[in-house]
Amino acid sequence: MKAGKLRKLSVAALLSLALAVPMAGGSCEAAKTPENLVHMQPTYRDVVVANVQNDNGAPRQLRMNVFVPPKAKDEKVPVLVFVHGGGWAKGTYEGDDAVKKEAASAQIGTNALMARDNNSAYRIFKDVLNHGIAFVSVDYRLNSEAAFPAQIYDVKAAVRFVRAHAAEYGLDADRIAIAGSSAGAHLATELAVTSGNKALEGDEGGNLEYSSSVKACVDYYGPTNLLTMAPEMNPALEAPDKAAETHDSVRANESILLGFTGEGQGVGTLRKIDEAGDTTSPYWSMVEMAKLASPVYQVTKDAPPFFIAHGGHDSLVPIQQSISLQKALTDAGVENIFMCNSKAPHGYQGEDTNQAMMRWLCRQLGVKY
Fold it and tell me: What Pfam families does the database record attribute to this sequence (predicted)?
């Protein structure tokens, strides 16, 4: 690690990095395939996972792209399920592999941040193909299509589908990890910490005899507490009034995600009710829903190992969101690494972080780095 790049590293991180040596007989160069598989096209494209409905009744197909790296005959490869970012409001499972279309009008503000994040993170995580790990990019209903918990139902349906069809695709059903960035990291984390929670499982796509659990989770700067995003933002990075508009108002993506966008509503209202402990409020059930949708409240000792990365200059998702998750995991006795590039924004975290993440992920899935 370069001096000055690391702002916070947990004890678990130090122990994990100390143990992060190549497996016997393996090395970084030996593990990689001759070509750069980041440019590989899907082995199975536009696979239909489930037919669902949006909140307005319109039909919606959930799809995924499956990339299987070259492998020895009859070998089963581990899997990384990737959940795209975009503030729950945009982005698709196709990521950088989408058919390029004529550029849309220029994006500004947080939309531009989210668009850049979705593209760069997709490439970073697709690099697992160069380490003999399958890459599966999955779909979910956006917040304009359906309110929570539709999104977590969709992502869990995708993991169940992967497990159910593992033999068909040459995948190892016992070695599945999940990762995401920003809003995708929120959903990946929510899935990882709520294994066995029937309230958050859903029945989309069926395959209910299969588990949606994962062996490991990578969270790149994801929201973990929907109620506290605005007050946790560093005022040096975003003024409090702007943070309130971004995260507390009825126009906030969190408010839209919860379906709480009527007059006098928004996440800011829910936080005030929660802080007052007003269980008599007609909106108390929405406070409970916001907490159900917040991974930091759902952590148990049964959560899988975590790798968390968050930039010190993130002006969209407060770094405190990751600090709180890391504390909850540590308090529950869950193995975790938390890395912070003090200069990183909401997006690219730097090669030191990305390489440490990939080394950790390979170790969790039992492959050479």
Answer: BD-FAE (PF20434)
165 within some domain = yes
* Domain of 344, in residue numbers: 6-21+28-97+108-225+301-365
- pTM to 2 decimals? 0.86
Instruction: Name the domain count of the chain.
Output: 2
Is 1 domain-assigned? no
The tens place of each residue's pLDDT in the chain, 369 residues long, gives 433 333 344 434 433 343 333 333 333 333 344 458 888 999 999 999 999 999 999 999 999 999 999 986 678 999 999 999 999 999 999 998 886 543 444 444 444 444 444 447 999 999 999 999 999 999 999 999 999 999 999 999 999 999 999 999 999 999 999 999 999 999 999 999 999 899 999 999 999 999 999 999 999 999 999 999 999 999 999 999 999 999 999 999 999 999 999 999 999 999 999 999 999 999 999 999 999 999 999 999 999 999 999 999 999 999 999 999 999 999 999 999 999 999 999 999 999 999 999 999 999 999 988
CATH assignment of the domain containing 323: 3.40.50.1820
On whether both 321 and 277 belong to a single domain, the answer is: no
CB atoms within 10 A of CB 66: 23
Contact 92, 138 (CB under 8 A): no
Please identify, among 246, 262, 293, the residue that sits at the C-terminal boundary of a domain: 293
Please check whether residue 103 lies inside any domain of the structure: no
Does any domain span residue 319?
yes
Q: Which residues contact 157 (CB under 8 A, 6 or more apart)?
A: 49, 50, 62, 202, 204, 205, 207, 212
